[in-house]
Fold these 2 entries.
Entry 1:
Amino acid sequence: MTLQNKKIRIGILGCGAIGSRIAKSVKKELKATYRLNGLYDITHEKAYQLEKSLKINNLIKPSFKKFLSSVDIVVEAVNSPDTAWIIKQAIKARKHVLSMSVGKLLKSSDIFRLATKNRCCVLLPSGAVAGIDAIKAASLGNISSITLTTRKPPGGFGHNPHLISRGINLAKITEETVLFQGTVDEAVKYFPQNINVAATVALAAHDKSKVIIRIITSPNFKVNSHELEVLGDFGRIVTRTDNVVCPDNPKTSYLAVLSGIQTLKQFSQGLKIGT
Ligand SMILES: NC(=O)c1ccc[n+]([C@@H]2O[C@H](COP(=O)([O-])OP(=O)(O)OC[C@H]3O[C@@H](n4cnc5c(N)ncnc54)[C@H](O)[C@@H]3O)[C@@H](O)[C@H]2O)c1
């Protein structure tokens, strides 16, 4: 793949809310450097609907293997328990990967080693939180603590098995309530659909033992917000991001999608600012 001379062949793996948005941006805003060359979704109808809305023929590949062979970079936007395995297959096939499911990579350091060995990039967008660039820089020195406080309205936690098993009825919550406080590993385990941000923070810090996650809900919260406080030898960072939800999926923040698109843009231009 030559970044300067040829368009980069890009494929969308998982044609749901995020995959579809990114595919549309590739067609519109990233068309100077990328050529959309593959779609794959375990639910064929999802891929079909996306192909139809893009008005580009022959994008859907009949198998994951054929999909991989048709692209240079994979946009992983699946919601699957096998995500880490899927990414590994892409890297084994020597493809670059932009992974949206950062929570699935927290315990997969072998993926990063394999990518280094195969000279592939695993790109992790900063997602729905501000401050990832500064955490990466600060991690070169000593970080003493990172607290990520995530606030979401009760609807953002619908059908969460962990809350159901603890007998928490979201509909009965009338005031600000701490649903969770604990480690990143626990947060990712109990809130897998909601907490990619926690995993991104931990990976940026290179030390998840310093990270505490708090998840708070209240019917008075109108947006999904992430507040970060980082303390270390460098000083103190405080950021707060109030997110508008993605129109296609209320569990996804719009900024997360934009950060995926921006990461792709910078990758194709050989440029890297912050994220
Ligand atoms: N990094 C971030 O900040 C951030 C923010 C929001 C969501 N996410 C993550 O991004 C991922 C996608 O989110 P979404 O909102 O688009 O989800 P979605 O449910 O809208 O779409 C996921 C798609 O993946 C498909 N899929 C499932 N298993 C598959 C497999 N094995 N092979 C191919 N396709 C498969 C589904 O059929 C579906 O179409 C999720 O893992 C989510 O947690 C990350």
Entry 2:
Amino acid sequence: MRDRGDRVARAAKDMLTRPLGRVLVIEDETRSLKPHLEGLGDTVDTWHRRSWGEDEGRPWPSDGPYDAATLRALPSKEAMRMALSAAAAALKPGAPIWVYGANDEGGRSLGAVMEGLFDDPRTVHTKHRSRVFEGTRPQTPPDKARLEDWVIARDGRVGFPGLFAKSGLDPATALLIRACPTPKPQSRVLDFACGLGIIAQALHARAPEAEYTLCDADALAVEAARRNMAGAEVILSDTWTRIQGRFNLIVSNPPIHEGKGESYTVLEQLILGAHAHLKQRGRLVLVTQKRIKVEPLLGRAFKAVERLAEDTRFDVWQASKPKAQPSS
Ligand SMILES: C[S@@+](CC[C@H](N)C(=O)[O-])C[C@H]1O[C@@H](n2cnc3c(N)ncnc32)[C@H](O)[C@@H]1O
């Protein structure tokens, strides 16, 4: 994954060889474009919606105006359109943008996503199994130039482009909600990797006296969850980075993807971190696809592990009574 990121960033840097002025660098997970551009004499601001460790994500970029921008392709087309609109709103008319991605993650179709938002989108570089498109900010600003223009209202909840299950209720999440024990009054509940907060919302409807904390690494998920769970504590946090204290119940439909590829890193961190963040007799309840061998992982950290529910595709697991610190 990291290799692919470095590879596409190299393709982008091939195109960034002259000073540009004030530049907005968007979604560069390698964090290598900023020093590269500063080395050319540019002033650089970055924007990424996901938090990477202590490096906080933000829902929308600073106002600008910028002389140029770069954008690393995102997995969702709608999230791309939103990021491109945010970039267009922050760029000066006539300013260039370079949009880049790997060939095996849809890099060839990036020009089509830019259509209508940037003038003359065209491939300007292909190398490192990646592709770089260039376009020009039109004279008129984009139609949807503010974050508020991108709010998705669905089933009485608020979402944004690029959020899980198109800001709706996923079948795995629905199974988890049905199987999850009702929190006790005054107990502390953590909805880990909350997305727009659907799980916490459902538990809150059943147990309004419990105390809810929600967390997610995506600043737009956090923005949505804050609107959907008014009064709850909603924390922008890459896994456990910003989570303090202990909980009686931790619930999660954890991510198993990083970009377009599969990754169990967050799932593993959830399980090992839950051990440290649960109170005595606390419980971790999570849902995963059946093919993911989660039971041995849970067994390494917890004394008691049981399957609470299943259907043809998903399992809901409950793990409780943490035992001794797992070895690594
Ligand atoms: C499968 S979705 C579940 C969302 C929501 N709980 C639901 O069921 O609708 C997983 C969520 O994990 C979040 N996520 C991904 N990586 C993360 C990380 N490192 N730390 C915290 N959350 C993360 C994503 O932003 C996404 O909202």
